[in-house]
Amino acid sequence: MLDVATLVERCRQGDDLAWEALVRRFQSRVFGLAYHYMRNAEEARDVAQEIFTRIYQRLDTFEGGETFMPWMLRLARNVCIDSLRRRKARPPASSETGDETLRMAAMGPTPEDSASARSTRQLLYRAMDRMSESDREILLLKEIQGLKVEEVSNLLGIPTGTVKSRCNRARIELATRIRRLDPSYGT
Known about the structure:
8 helices
């Protein structure tokens, strides 16, 4: 498996197979980020395609001094925010939650395990929906996407101490909201 820097360089040289490998490596992460912003699986798929189009168009602007992941997530975040702004300007004809369309067939887990995981995921999404946008974004970038504090700081343009305190506060708030939605959770 090639490292990301090699894939990026080959993509810049027009290697279609390298581009396909890069997309495959990051498609679930990009979709997950888009879904957290869009809250609808179909819209998230559309936005994820737009994100990869922008990544391809802007590969020459990636300087390699930073790691690829924060650069990609910054670009993805900006595409999601732009899409949300367009959606506010033109509201959709119907608003659906994407939870039902997000279900994907998985090999291995029992139906009980799948139902339990789906229930936990829905509880998490409901709790996160009740959080402020900034707290939800901090959790998404740091805890779900796995970025380092410094990377989140650079991405959002806020001090690292602020990232740490907001993340801690957001985790506490999320736990509180989950307990309020389901007092029996975790017992």
